[in-house]
Predict the structure.
Amino acid sequence: MGKLELVQPLIGFDWTFVMVLVTFAVLLFIVRKFFWEKLRAFMLAREQKIVDGFDNAAEANRVANARLDEYNAKIADIGSERRDMLTEAKSKADENAKEIMQIAEQKAQRMLREASERIEAEKERALSDMREQIGMLAVYAAEKIIEKQLDVAGQQAIVDSVLREAENREWKI
Protein backbone atom coordinates (compact mmCIF):
# COMPACT_ATOMS: atom_id res chain seq x y z
CA MET A 1 0.00 0.00 0.00
CA GLY A 2 1.49 3.13 -1.06
CA LYS A 3 0.67 6.40 0.20
CA LEU A 4 -0.96 8.79 -1.98
CA GLU A 5 0.88 11.94 -1.95
CA LEU A 6 -0.88 15.14 -2.61
CA VAL A 7 1.42 17.96 -3.31
CA GLN A 8 -0.06 21.33 -3.91
CA PRO A 9 1.94 24.27 -5.08
CA LEU A 10 2.32 27.24 -2.70
CA ILE A 11 0.76 29.68 -5.12
CA GLY A 12 -1.70 28.39 -7.59
CA PHE A 13 -2.33 30.20 -10.88
CA ASP A 14 -6.00 29.91 -11.28
CA TRP A 15 -8.92 32.32 -11.54
CA THR A 16 -8.93 32.95 -7.81
CA PHE A 17 -5.40 34.24 -8.01
CA VAL A 18 -6.32 36.54 -10.87
CA MET A 19 -9.31 37.88 -8.92
CA VAL A 20 -7.16 38.53 -5.86
CA LEU A 21 -4.72 40.47 -8.03
CA VAL A 22 -7.49 42.50 -9.66
CA THR A 23 -9.08 43.22 -6.27
CA PHE A 24 -5.72 44.29 -4.88
CA ALA A 25 -5.10 46.58 -7.85
CA VAL A 26 -8.55 48.18 -7.50
CA LEU A 27 -8.04 48.68 -3.76
CA LEU A 28 -4.60 50.15 -4.41
CA PHE A 29 -6.09 52.50 -6.99
CA ILE A 30 -8.90 53.58 -4.59
CA VAL A 31 -6.49 54.05 -1.70
CA ARG A 32 -4.11 55.98 -3.94
CA LYS A 33 -6.86 58.14 -5.41
CA PHE A 34 -8.73 59.01 -2.20
CA PHE A 35 -6.50 58.26 0.78
CA TRP A 36 -2.88 58.31 -0.37
CA GLU A 37 -2.40 62.09 -0.06
CA LYS A 38 -4.09 62.17 3.33
CA LEU A 39 -2.00 59.23 4.50
CA ARG A 40 1.16 60.78 3.08
CA ALA A 41 0.33 64.15 4.66
CA PHE A 42 -0.35 62.41 7.98
CA MET A 43 2.99 60.56 7.76
CA LEU A 44 4.86 63.73 6.80
CA ALA A 45 3.18 65.64 9.63
CA ARG A 46 4.08 62.86 12.03
CA GLU A 47 7.66 62.85 10.76
CA GLN A 48 7.81 66.64 11.15
CA LYS A 49 6.46 66.37 14.71
CA ILE A 50 9.17 63.84 15.54
CA VAL A 51 11.87 66.04 13.98
CA ASP A 52 10.47 69.06 15.85
CA GLY A 53 10.45 67.00 19.04
CA PHE A 54 14.12 66.15 18.55
CA ASP A 55 14.90 69.80 17.76
CA ASN A 56 12.97 70.93 20.83
CA ALA A 57 14.76 68.35 22.94
CA ALA A 58 18.11 69.52 21.59
CA GLU A 59 17.15 73.15 22.31
CA ALA A 60 15.95 72.18 25.79
CA ASN A 61 19.27 70.38 26.38
CA ARG A 62 21.18 73.45 25.19
CA VAL A 63 19.13 75.72 27.49
CA ALA A 64 19.52 73.28 30.38
CA ASN A 65 23.29 73.11 29.83
CA ALA A 66 23.45 76.92 29.69
CA ARG A 67 21.49 77.14 32.95
CA LEU A 68 23.68 74.46 34.49
CA ASP A 69 26.78 76.44 33.53
CA GLU A 70 25.14 79.59 34.93
CA TYR A 71 24.28 77.81 38.19
CA ASN A 72 27.79 76.39 38.44
CA ALA A 73 29.19 79.90 37.96
CA LYS A 74 26.82 81.22 40.64
CA ILE A 75 27.89 78.41 43.00
CA ALA A 76 31.54 79.29 42.34
CA ASP A 77 30.72 82.97 43.02
CA ILE A 78 28.92 82.00 46.21
CA GLY A 79 31.96 79.97 47.28
CA SER A 80 34.19 82.94 46.53
CA GLU A 81 31.83 85.27 48.41
CA ARG A 82 31.82 82.86 51.34
CA ARG A 83 35.62 82.82 51.41
CA ASP A 84 35.66 86.63 51.20
CA MET A 85 33.10 86.88 54.01
CA LEU A 86 35.10 84.47 56.16
CA THR A 87 38.29 86.42 55.49
CA GLU A 88 36.53 89.68 56.34
CA ALA A 89 35.01 88.20 59.49
CA LYS A 90 38.42 86.86 60.54
CA SER A 91 40.06 90.24 60.01
CA LYS A 92 37.27 91.95 61.99
CA ALA A 93 37.67 89.38 64.76
CA ASP A 94 41.44 90.00 64.75
CA GLU A 95 40.84 93.76 64.94
CA ASN A 96 38.37 93.25 67.80
CA ALA A 97 40.86 91.01 69.58
CA LYS A 98 43.58 93.66 69.18
CA GLU A 99 41.23 96.34 70.52
CA ILE A 100 40.29 94.15 73.47
CA MET A 101 43.96 93.42 74.13
CA GLN A 102 44.79 97.15 73.98
CA ILE A 103 41.92 97.99 76.32
CA ALA A 104 42.99 95.22 78.71
CA GLU A 105 46.60 96.39 78.56
CA GLN A 106 45.53 99.99 79.24
CA LYS A 107 43.36 98.82 82.10
CA ALA A 108 46.22 96.74 83.53
CA GLN A 109 48.59 99.73 83.21
CA ARG A 110 46.06 101.96 84.96
CA MET A 111 45.56 99.37 87.70
CA LEU A 112 49.35 99.06 88.13
CA ARG A 113 49.69 102.85 88.26
CA GLU A 114 46.87 103.12 90.82
CA ALA A 115 48.36 100.28 92.88
CA SER A 116 51.76 101.96 92.73
CA GLU A 117 50.21 105.25 93.83
CA ARG A 118 48.41 103.48 96.68
CA ILE A 119 51.63 101.73 97.71
CA GLU A 120 53.47 105.06 97.60
CA ALA A 121 50.70 106.69 99.68
CA GLU A 122 50.82 103.82 102.20
CA LYS A 123 54.59 104.12 102.32
CA GLU A 124 54.35 107.87 102.98
CA ARG A 125 51.74 107.30 105.66
CA ALA A 126 53.87 104.57 107.25
CA LEU A 127 56.91 106.88 107.20
CA SER A 128 54.80 109.66 108.68
CA ASP A 129 53.55 107.32 111.41
CA MET A 130 57.08 106.10 112.02
CA ARG A 131 58.39 109.69 112.29
CA GLU A 132 55.59 110.49 114.69
CA GLN A 133 56.39 107.46 116.82
CA ILE A 134 60.13 108.21 116.67
CA GLY A 135 59.36 111.76 117.70
CA MET A 136 57.22 110.52 120.57
CA LEU A 137 60.01 108.12 121.49
CA ALA A 138 62.53 110.94 121.39
CA VAL A 139 60.29 113.08 123.61
CA TYR A 140 59.85 110.15 125.99
CA ALA A 141 63.60 109.59 126.07
CA ALA A 142 64.18 113.30 126.66
CA GLU A 143 61.68 113.25 129.53
CA LYS A 144 63.50 110.33 131.09
CA ILE A 145 66.87 112.04 130.65
CA ILE A 146 65.59 115.27 132.15
CA GLU A 147 64.01 113.42 135.07
CA LYS A 148 67.22 111.74 136.03
CA GLN A 149 69.74 114.47 135.16
CA LEU A 150 72.41 111.88 134.83
CA ASP A 151 75.83 111.93 133.41
CA VAL A 152 76.70 110.84 129.85
CA ALA A 153 76.92 107.15 130.77
CA GLY A 154 73.57 107.33 132.49
CA GLN A 155 72.06 109.09 129.47
CA GLN A 156 73.44 106.34 127.20
CA ALA A 157 71.86 103.72 129.46
CA ILE A 158 68.49 105.51 129.26
CA VAL A 159 68.71 105.71 125.44
CA ASP A 160 69.58 102.01 125.28
CA SER A 161 66.69 101.24 127.61
CA VAL A 162 64.27 103.29 125.47
CA LEU A 163 65.50 101.57 122.31
CA ARG A 164 65.02 98.12 123.88
CA GLU A 165 61.58 99.17 125.01
CA ALA A 166 60.83 100.46 121.54
CA GLU A 167 62.00 97.16 120.04
CA ASN A 168 59.60 95.28 122.29
CA ARG A 169 56.77 97.64 121.42
CA GLU A 170 54.53 96.90 118.48
CA TRP A 171 55.01 99.42 115.63
CA LYS A 172 51.98 100.61 113.66
CA ILE A 173 52.76 100.80 109.96
